[in-house]
Write a structure and sequence with these properties.
- This protein has 171 residues and is α+β, with helices and mostly antiparallel strands.
- The chain has one domain (2-46, 67-153).
- The protein contains 6 helices and 5 strands.
- The chain has helices at 2-13, 20-42, 62-73, 75-87, 93-104, 134-153, and strands at residues 48-52, 58-60, 111-114, 123-126, 129-133.
- The strands form 2 sheets. A 3-stranded mixed beta sheet has the order 3-5-4. Strands 1-2 form a two-stranded antiparallel ribbon.
- A hairpin with a 5-residue loop joins strand 1 and strand 2 (58-60).
- Helix 2 (20-42) packs across helix 5 (93-104) and helix 3 (62-73) packs across helix 6 (134-153).
- The longest helix is centred in the N-terminal third of the chain and has 23 residues, at 20-42.
Amino acid sequence: MKADIGREVNWFRDGKDAGQLLCGLGLVVYTEILGRIMRWNDDRPNFYSGREQRDGERSEELYLHFNAFFDKLSDQHAAWRRKWEREHPKTDVYESLRSGLVHEYAPKVNSEFRMAGAFPIGLGEEGDLLIFEVEAYFDAFSAAADALLSRLASDSRSSLPPTRYRLDQTV
């Protein structure tokens, strides 16, 4: 995760072209993935929503995974997310960024992706435009990812959550 996006950030720092939208996509997906791993290890009783899917499997609320790790990036990230969501009651950061980028390769709100800029946490607004700045977000993401890895590596009870699809199941 860090090596792929870090390479793009380093290319940018070296004055080369870099893929800010692709990096943004990677970062929001990785935010959800690390949130899933973190919640499995820290909050297993609440990992599943309790609702059952069609096949009888318990479902996961993916936005909870995203929000959990996003909020671990820093206190400023958590505060920014809560404020942004209060100001945009028809959507949330997960739906606007992660779902929009994954399913449509476009956020679901007016936005601009930059490699760097003026927002210390890598997120901000200019008028009605949501700004995602890869470099600052990546730095916070990397620090939080390293902290999670270190913590999980030192706990012999740590594990990865089960895969979402069984191998014998057609997806």
